[in-house]
Amino acid sequence: MGLLTSTYFLTFAAFQLPLGILLDRFGPRRVESVLLLFAALGAFLFARGQSVSELVLARAFIGLGVSACLMASFKAFVMWFPSERLPLVNGCVMAVGGFGALLATAPVEALLHVIDWRGVFFILTAAALAFSAAIFFVVPRRPEEHHAATESTSAQVRGLVSVFRNPVFWRIAPIATASQAAFLSIQGLWAGPWLKDVAGLSRQAVADQLAFIPVSMIFGFLLMGVISDRLRRLGIPTVAVAAAGMILFVLAQLAIIFAPPVPPALLWCAFGFFGTSGILNYAVLSQTFPKTLAGRVNTGLNVLAFSAAFAAQWGLGGMIGLWPGETEGSYAPVGYQVAFAVAMTTQVLCLIWMLWPRRNPAAKL
């Protein structure tokens, strides 16, 4: 399961650097509408898959196909909105994405009583095709899309190199990567097994509890964007809000590691809410670089985040698996404690790196 699900992150991450060049060159409308066709193909192949290798291949196509969904939105927002509003509009689109995560919990569990999982993926196939057509024919064009398409490929590659050579990028990237990797890998796979093995919940109870995470994510994305937008008017930069949120996210993970005698829903709501603070880092970097580099900046950070998420999801599973449970397919609580503690410690070290004072003016936030 760890390998199968993490394949999504691998292909997603592998396409991020060329994706950034494509977004800056051809614009989000054309790039996103084409890539969603690959997502539809992946969902269709997954619905028809008969072996692990076929499911892994289908999962890879899905990862490729949805690799631009968020980045195309971020690029479009840079084109359409002033830079100071990016934390708010980014938070709004992430909140919409939270509804997708919500649909993947209890609603899907209920749908599986009517159709099987293959039917669910056939529905996703049709949805991806419909959204691809809607984006291509409905989303308006911007004049700068034509101008970007005339820039040479070598010039765009040089722009990408300049992103990775910028000291501000490397001050933000480690904590953004570590935070997002922990958030995506734990929320995406290991929260459910934790609720079963550590909290001792039934399958239905696990599905019900997991629904609290995307709900808290929706509120987190919205409120983090609103808070950042309001504090900006008081002179508090977005990077300060992001740092505070990621510190609280670390504390939420610490609570899950020690599993105090409180309802599990409270622990995972805190995890989902404060885990959204890492997305503010994309707005921080978009505000730092020119608009023409927005696609390459965001995908440059995304390739690190999703590569780490691939490694974390598989690696956490390896650590958890070192302590098998009393029944087949279960794991001991200490395995989760060790794995989650490793992820949390990595974030603490990256936070120290981000907050450590710099003498180099070019690296100051």
Structure description:
By secondary structure, this protein is an all-alpha fold. It has one domain: Growth Hormone, Chain: A (Up-down Bundle), CATH 1.20.1250.20. It is about 80% helix and about 0% strand. Helix 3 (about 30-50) packs antiparallel against helix 8 (about 115-140). The protein is globular.
Largest sheet: none
| CATH class identity | Mainly Alpha
Strand content: under 5%
What would the principal axes of the Cα set say about the shape? globular
CATH superfamily: MFS general substrate transporter like domains
Averaged pLDDT, please?
A: 89
Helix content: over 70%
Q: Treating each run of at least 4 consecutive H or I residues as one helix, how many helices?
A: 18
- Round the Cα radius of gyration to an integer and report it: 20 Å
Gap between N and C termini: 40 Å
Structural class determined from secondary elements: mainly alpha
Total strands: the figure is 0
Instruction: Write down the domain tally.
Output: 1
Summarize the helix and strand pattern as letters: HHHHHHHHHHHHHHHHHH
Low-confidence stretches: none
Q: Using the 3D structure, state the CATH architecture.
A: Up-down Bundle
CATH topology: Growth Hormone, Chain: A
How are the elements arranged and paired?
Layout: H1 2-14, H2 16-26, H3 28-48, H4 52-65, H5 69-80, H6 86-103, H7 106-111, H8 117-138, H9 143-149, H10 153-164, H11 167-197, H12 203-210, H13 212-233, H14 238-258, H15 264-275, H16 280-288, H17 294-320, H18 333-355
Question: What's this entry about, in short?
Answer:
This protein has 365 residues and is mainly alpha-helical. It has a single domain, classed as Growth Hormone, Chain: A (Up-down Bundle). The chain contains 18 helices and no strands.
